[in-house]
């Protein structure tokens, strides 16, 4: 069955990060992401059974082992697992000493996750524009934002493309601002010997099912080299306890990865590099096939891009998407509305000039790109895209 994985796809709930496409064409749609394809060949049932049989479900040996293995994978000393990626951002900010009234710089084109964490603390987001090619934080715009003295800066590696994090971190540290990397779309991305999350002061991850490393539910975590910082996050994830029932740190909460998710992530982690290169191979094929079309394509297919999302820019986006839908190709938009224009808040006064952010958000379209997408399906996506421009 060609699209047999679609059934697993349909079970995915609403996804805040990478929405599965909905299909009016039923079984034949090539989806934007497939959980069934991502988990194919893994015996996750016996992994879960192992935890059931252990009778230990929270903060046990699976979590300890996963934290060690994920820290090693990223080439850092510390990993603290958490309930989800948004908590990772918020607890990272709190551990770095950000509190109500502080400013935190971030981009406005990354799905409001940073803004959610910043606003939860009572801090104020200070939006920074993005670079035209990478759509990641612009160094020039950051320099301008740093004159407003943010306490911390969140750098998102959007779509799995590493930002110019070394240069951005240098600017931040010179201005006395802490650097948080949002690696929720960039597990495993590398520049030289260093992985996403190991370059700033702290790296934040989500293990939501659609991410490059995904659990069978929510999950998240931080990585860093600073043992004190990690210890603070460890305390904050469990009510602010120093020891059991003794609250020594304020603003704690319950944010723990559970044993089943940790065991699933341990099973999947050794496959991450292989899956990332499958994603990258698909992106490479798309980039070659679309090179002569009036599309703006992802700028890199090297190790610094793990192709979490394959996003192109196109004029008349909704026509393009309708054409693809009629050719049974699912698409989505990441993300249609920048953070400062979300209607729940009035955040427009906290921005500097966001020319690129504003200019690009109406052009973005994500195409199917995930491990398990067959060569034949990639061909079909390519044919559908090319036929749009041949009409
Ligand atoms: C998914 C995502 C998050 C949030 O992760 P959750 O686990 O859903 O809370 C944060 N930042 C980015 C860039 C993401 O893609």
N-to-C CA distance: 31 Å
Q: Give helix and strand order, one letter per element, not per position.
A: HHHHEHEHEHEHEEEEEHEEHHEHHEH
Most strands sheet = 7 strands, mixed
CATH topology of the largest domain: Aspartate Aminotransferase, domain 2
Structural class: alpha/beta
Classified by CATH, the class of the largest domain is Alpha Beta
Number of domains: 2
Give the CA-based shape. globular
Structure description:
Mean pLDDT is 93; it is low at 1-25. The chain is globular. The strands form 4 sheets. A 7-stranded mixed β-sheet has the order 1-9-8-5-4-2-3, sandwiched between helices. Helix 5 crosses helix 9 (227-236). The protein is an alpha/beta fold and 391 residues long. It is built from 14 helices and 13 strands. The chain has helices spanning 6-11, 35-39, 44-54, 61-74, 85-95, 113-121, 139-146, 165-174, 227-236, 259-268, 272-289, 317-326, 355-360, 375-390; strands at residues 78-82, 103-107, 124-128, 152-156, 178-182, 190-191, 194-195, 202-206, 220-224, 241-243, 246-247, 310-313, 364-367. The protein is 37% helix and 13% strand. It has 2 domains: 35-41 and 271-389, Aspartate Aminotransferase, domain 1 (Alpha-Beta Complex), CATH 3.90.1150; 46-269, Aspartate Aminotransferase, domain 2 (3-Layer(aba) Sandwich), CATH 3.40.640.10. Residues 16-17, 84-86, 110-111, 113, 156, 182, 184-185, 206, 208, 218, 220 line the site of pyridoxal-5'-phosphate (PLP). Pyridoxal-5'-phosphate binds at residues 16-17, 84-86, 110-111, 113, 156, 182, 184-185, 206, 208, 218, 220.
